[in-house]
Design brief:
By secondary structure, the protein is mainly α. The protein is built from seven helices and no strands. Helix 3 crosses helix 4 and helix 6 crosses helix 7. It is globular and about 45 Å long.
Amino acid sequence: MQDFFDRLMEMGRYPDLTRKEVFVRDRQYFDQILYKNHRFRHEYAEAYQTWARAAGADRASRRKLLPLRIESAVRLMGEDEVRALFARVLDAAVPPESVPAGLDFRDTLPGGACDADPACAALMEPLRRFWLRLALPDVWEEDEL
């Protein structure tokens, strides 16, 4: 995946930026290109499948890739950016008094400490949506057919 994200976009609004820079700066535009541009989607799907196979997954077992998709997106964006987005989601979704003290964004990842903690129950639904949206897109070659 790293090779895919290190290449230049060479199209659209940001032809001189790398795909990583577009992913970080304008995720909505990145997703739009991914779903509307066949060549870009094909390149992404090839890179994604190679990455998934290296992680020991295939299309049938794609659910187990979610934590890895999130971690990869966090690495691409940088932890500071993710922490800032996480704080904005928490502020918008739940009252500050319902956030457990010392909560770190990693605690709310799938399989994290908040999955089993009843104190986190109120904030997990908006955070699950946040993590699904932040994660690398789940695109396979078969999806193109």
